[in-house]
Design a protein that fits this description.
Number of helices: 7
Largest sheet: 2 strands, antiparallel
Structural class: mainly alpha
Strand order of the largest sheet: 1-2
Radius of gyration: 22 Å
Shape: globular
Oligomer: single chain
Length: 243
């Protein structure tokens, strides 16, 4: 297996600058949108049947505008703290790290870059619902999820194989079967990427026509990604048992 390498003498970048920047832009966008529609929002939003046992749920305006920004802050905080905690836990438990600092940074960057637009879209949906324009919110959510599917599909062929740290932790040199299965999963991701992009583009168009159907197509894109990858891995596993 070919492992990821870094330039000799170059220190690993550990701070997820891109992800934190995307999250910060998302927080500013949510604050701006909340300020823009503040005067049109009811002081208490009533969600019919949204409470326990079918009772109505009542959401104060302040909670409505602050909840999802706080959720995004919480997600970002947990991811950043997890970066530091994983090293300390590994040292305390005397277990090998599964990822290098660089690979961990990329994971946090990706997570924040994908989750931030989803949280912002949900924020727009709830603000639109509260201000009496539910369709706009549904269109935004459907369009953003379609864009996320496109981004994921485009990124799948570029996913790196396990780096040196992960390989050592999983002892891939001693487990050739696992090594082959991981490479098979990588091939499956490459094949699934184009299909996910096409479905994402279709979902993006449908978002402005029928948001509900668009959401279904985006979900289908995720299912296809898992199915294609799983089929490739399964075929490799069957061939391995016959060899």
């Amino acid at each position: 297996m070919h492992h990821e390498t870094t330039t000799a003498g170059a220190p690993d970048r550990t701070f997820p600058t891109r992800g934190v920047t995307v999250a910060a832009v998302g927080l500013v966008a949510m604050a701006g949108l909340s300020a823009y529609v503040w005067g049109r929002l009811p002081w208490v939003l009533t969600l019919e049947g949204g409470g326990q046992d079918g009772a109505d749920a009542h959401v104060p305006k302040l909670v409505l505008v602050a909840l999802l920004p706080l959720v995004l802050l919480g997600i970002g905080g947990v991811l950043l703290l997890a970066q530091r905690a994983r090293v300390r836990v590994a040292k305390a438990a005397s277990v090998p790290l599964w990822r290098t600092a660089e690979a961990d940074r990329r994971s946090v960057d990706t997570a924040l870059s994908v989750l931030t637009p989803v949280v912002v879209a949900l924020h727009v949906f709830f603000l639109s619902l509260a201000s009496g324009d539910e369709r706009t919110g549904r269109v935004v959510v459907a369009a953003v999820l379609a864009l996320v599917a496109i981004v994921i599909g485009n990124a799948l062929p570029k996913v790196l194989v396990p780096d040196a740290a992960a390989s050592r932790a999983m002892r891939l040199d001693e487990r050739p079967t696992l090594d082959r299965l991981l490479m098979a999963a990588r091939r499956g991701q490459r094949r699934a990427g184009a299909v996910v992009v096409v479905l994402g583009l279709l979902a993006l168009v449908l978002a402005f026509v029928d948001p509900t159907v668009s959401l279904g197509v985006s979900v289908l894109a995720v299912v296809v990604m898992g199915v294609v990858t799983g089929v490739v891995v399964l075929r490799t596993a069957i061939r391995s048992t016959r060899a």
